[in-house]
Amino acid sequence: MTVLTRFGMALFLIIASLQVYGADHHASTKAFKSIPLSGSVVLLRGKGGNIALIKGEQGLVMVDADYKEMSAALEDVLEGDGGVKNVTYLINTHWHGDHTQGNELVGHHAQIVAHDNVRTRLLTRQEIKLFGMVSEPYPEHALPSLTYSKKLSLFINGESFDIVHFPNGHTDGDSVVFMKESNIVHMGDNFFSGMFPFVDVANGGDVMQMADNVAAVLARIDDDTTVIPGHGTLSDKLGLAEFHEMLVGTTDEVKAMMTAGMTVEQMQSEGLSLDWEDWANGLISADAWIAIIASSLKAS
Ligand SMILES: [Zn+2]
To answer: How far is the CA of 120 from the centre of ligand 1 (A)?
Structure first.
């Protein structure tokens, strides 16, 4: 079988698994589920990436902003806290639309903070070819207005935020947001809780680097830290450690099969070991995950 056909098959499997994701979410109503965390922090779970909302007298701070179609629901949920005009800072963990399309609503009022590469990407047309997704350039007010390269500190509402860039994990512009006083960390898409993640290899992501990034975060947090994943349910250090173990374990298995000369199709029919069975029940199937790891290993 030709390389092209094998690649086509891998693409098909990834797209098929994403369509399941889309179907699931269309069935849900457009409302956020609010989950109070410690201190003045609330987790908002909508359709796209998880949002952290931090309240206080100096105004609201948000981490991520979900899809545009969730913006009306976002306005509703912010109403009790002074409304969307009360948002002072919006931090984007990366450029993907399920985390940044809400910029268009929030950016009329808030400063949008992100890694340098997020602004660069949102200035121009972006694509995730694997999913056939296109992102048109964002209007000026929806672009990050405050960008950084390695680390940015923000002090507001009695909370110290460390916004830290971890290179080439999920994309080339990922931020992890540490909230020191509340002992909460928002991982962005460097963490999909309890499921295989999407890694945007075509836009600077790398599976092995993601594992290194997760290890670096694990070294900074403790057993009491609340860990917000980009996608999936609220977690903790143990949940993040299990995710790290899965990243390393599955990458080792795919690497061994590649070294043995197997094609992506052959690896998919061989499958991963049963240890990782439960991780396939989320957004990305085992076959899609094998294809992502293989493409990441080939690219690096
Ligand atoms: Zn993402």
So the answer is: 16
